[in-house]
């Protein structure tokens, strides 16, 4: 592959990945190489390479006689990822809260205020980015490097699942901001670290439950 083709492949990959992550390409949507190439102004060769990379990331599936499609949401993987993240993040925030002034509460409050301000005209992808920044502001000061690494892996796993849950359950956004307020209050008043851990875990688990039980959707029986 020439350098020019590699560059075009990278460009195609970045554009297609962004469209999937932002929800512009819906789950199950067919990805026709020739059509995408025409849209991006490149041949099918760099598009094919980009699709292969996206398939390796789990963002695209390939079926014989059908071709490439945007991967469907794996609800079990999503739930299990958040369940695991709730445990390690809850512990990370608990340990961070035990270290005096380790958590920058002013920064966390500012981030939550930005989340609150965005509720009037909710943009799910941007809300999700701010939400991650808020959560990381609480967990990153954790003195346990192994826990920090596990939390980071959880976030990367969620990113691979790619979709903003708030696009499916926008009403969950306001509840999430209110729960952030409660967590900040617990940290700011020096509450029992175990109460902080529990609040973080319950907050984490509330979002996938809202997603699985959203109106018009029937979750698999074993996930209800």
TrEMBL record:
All residue ranges annotated as the HTH gntR-type domain in the record: 6-73
GO molecular function: DNA-binding transcription factor activity; sequence-specific DNA binding
Listed InterPro entries: AsnC-type_HTH_dom, GntR_C, TF_FadR/GntR_C, Tscrpt_reg_HTH_GntR, WH-like_DNA-bd_sf, WH_DNA-bd_sf
Keyword Ribonucleoprotein among record annotations: no
Keywords in alphabetical order: DNA-binding, Transcription, Transcription regulation
Pfam families: FCD, GntR
Protein name (record): GntR family transcriptional regulator
């Amino acid at each position: 592959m020439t350098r020019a083709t590699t560059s075009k492949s990278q460009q195609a990959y970045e554009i297609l990945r962004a469209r999937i992550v932002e929800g512009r390409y819906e789950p199950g949507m067919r990805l026709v190489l020739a059509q995408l190439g025409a849209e991006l102004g490149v041949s099918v060769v760099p598009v094919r390479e980009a699709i292969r990379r996206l398939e390796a990331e789990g963002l695209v599936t390939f079926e014989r006689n059908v071709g490439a499609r945007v991967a469907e949401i794996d609800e079990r993987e999503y739930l299990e990822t958040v369940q695991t993240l709730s445990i390690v993040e809850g512990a990370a925030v608990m340990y961070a809260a035990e270290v005096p002034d380790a958590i920058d509460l002013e920064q966390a409050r500012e981030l939550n205020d930005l989340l609150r301000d965005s509720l009037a005209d909710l943009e799910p992808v941007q809300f999700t980015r701010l939400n991650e920044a808020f959560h990381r502001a609480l967990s990153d000061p954790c003195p346990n490097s192994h826990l920090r690494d596990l939390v980071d892996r959880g976030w990367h796993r969620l990113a691979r699942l790619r979709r903003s849950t708030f696009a499916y359950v926008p009403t969950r956004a306001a509840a999430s901001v209110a729960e952030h307020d409660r967590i900040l209050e617990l940290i700011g008043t020096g509450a029992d670290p175990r109460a902080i851990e529990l609040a973080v875990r319950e907050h984490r688990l509330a979002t996938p439950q809202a997603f699985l039980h959203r109106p018009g959707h029937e979750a698999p029986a074993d996930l209800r």
